[in-house]
Design a protein that fits this description.
Blueprint: E1 2-10, E2 17-25, E3 28-30, E4 50-52, E5 55-57, H1 59-66, E6 81-83, E7 89-91, H2 94-97, H3 110-113, E8 116-118, E9 121-123, H4 125-129, H5 135-151, E10 162-166, H6 168-175, E11 185-193, E12 199-209, H7 214-232, H8 240-258, H9 261-271, H10 278-304
Parallel strand pairs: 10-12
Antiparallel strand pairs: 1-2, 2-3, 4-5, 6-7, 8-9, 11-12
Helix pairs in contact: 5-7, 7-8, 8-9, 8-10
């Protein structure tokens, strides 16, 4: 910043001529009394200023004006801050103040954005808006997912599969699992005992956690329909890891083909799952699909009742 005497020029603040002393900041000139911060209007002293897009600011005012705002408290984020998958920026301290949505991971400030309690955690307003709460809506979306699965070369029998919504406690009870787990659905079978001591598959029912956001419901439906397809084919020799991995891979494909931010988020959750059964199972099937294609896996299961044998590359 310089103060000098020169011929009259134009003040960038008021547009009037400067006669006498002036202040130059970048390519602009100012009356000494018009060299003020564009945010607070106070004089800029001692040469401490920031120029941006033809305006001058106190450094602190510039940081506060142009810095991103916290999505939760609207304060300027002038130092370190958190940015989640959804592009929401927030103050670091909110990480310990607010719980995360049990489904999408967004932080939930119930005082501002209407988050609500859900089964197994807190649900954000975004997930609540698309939550599948009614049996009719669940059945329609399940049938839509079944049609998608059929297009993936999975041929289902004509026998209708029942789908119902239920709470987490009931799902865990049917699975014989700890209620603290992350189980979102279950497929149950009913067999008819024949006169010769054999059994015949009589019916299949799928139960899905009530209140899942729409995209997650579609992925869980695809996963459970994977179980339905395997059971209709009478495939019983797969390990738990391979069966769950196959169903997770089917769900992953459903999410990926949606081509939405939500779909990519849930696909990423599957890909990054560290669980030995679901995560490792998914990666095993994904690796297999990279070698023989998903169609190759389906054809091997349909024709030979087992996964394809992949020879190791020497």
């Amino acid at each position: 910043m310089t103060i000098t005497n020169s011929r009259p020029i134009i003040c960038a603040h008021c547009g009037g001529e400067v006669c006498g002393a002036y202040i130059q900041a970048g390519s602009n000139h100012y009356h000494p009394f018009h060299f003020v911060c564009s945010v607070c209007g106070k004089d800029i002293l001692e040469g401490l200023y920031v120029e941006d897009d033809g305006h001058v600011y106190h450094p602190g005012c510039h940081e506060a004006r142009l810095a991103p705002r916290c999505s939760y408290c609207d304060k300027p984020l002038c130092g370190d801050y958190r940015e989640d998958y959804w592009g929401l920026r927030s103050c670091i301290e909110h990480e310990v103040e607010f719980p995360s949505c049990v489904f999408c991971g967004r932080m939930v400030d119930s005082r501002r954005n209407g988050g609500s309690a859900s089964q197994g955690g807190v649900r954000c307003i975004v997930c609540r808006r698309t939550a599948i709460e009614g049996e009719r809506e669940a059945d329609e979306l399940f049938r839509e997912t079944l049609c998608w699965c059929s297009a993936q070369t999975l041929a289902f029998s004509s026998r209708k599969v029942f789908v119902g919504l239920c709470d987490k406690q009931r799902i865990c009870k049917m699975l014989g699992k700890n209620p603290a787990g992350k189980h979102l659905g279950v497929t149950k079978t009913r067999h008819l005992s024949l006169w010769n001591g054999a059994f015949r598959l009589q019916s299949l029912s799928v139960f899905i956690l009530r209140g899942l956001p729409r995209t997650l419901f579609m992925g869980v439906s695809a996963h459970e329909l994977g179980h339905v397809w395997l059971k209709q084919l009478g495939i019983v020799g797969l390990s738990e890891q391979h069966e769950e991995g196959f169903c997770e891979f089917l769900s992953f494909r459903r999410y990926h083909q949606l081509k939405t931010k939500e779909g990519q988020f849930f696909a990423g959750q599957i890909a990054g799952n560290e669980d030995n059964v679901y995560g490792e199972g998914f990666r095993a099937i994904r690796s297999m699909a990279a070698r023989v294609g998903f169609g190759g896996i389906v054809e091997s299961l349909r024709a030979q009742k087992r996964l394809p044998i992949i020879e190791r590359v020497q």
